[in-house]
Amino acid sequence: MTETELDALFLALASATRRQILDIVLESPGCTAGFVADHFDISRIAVLKHLNTLEEAGLLISQKQGRERLLYMNPVPLQLVQERWSRQYAEFWASRLTRLKYTIETAARQDRRKEKHDESQ
Question: Phi/psi of residue 97, each to 5°?
Answer without folding.
Answer: -65, -35
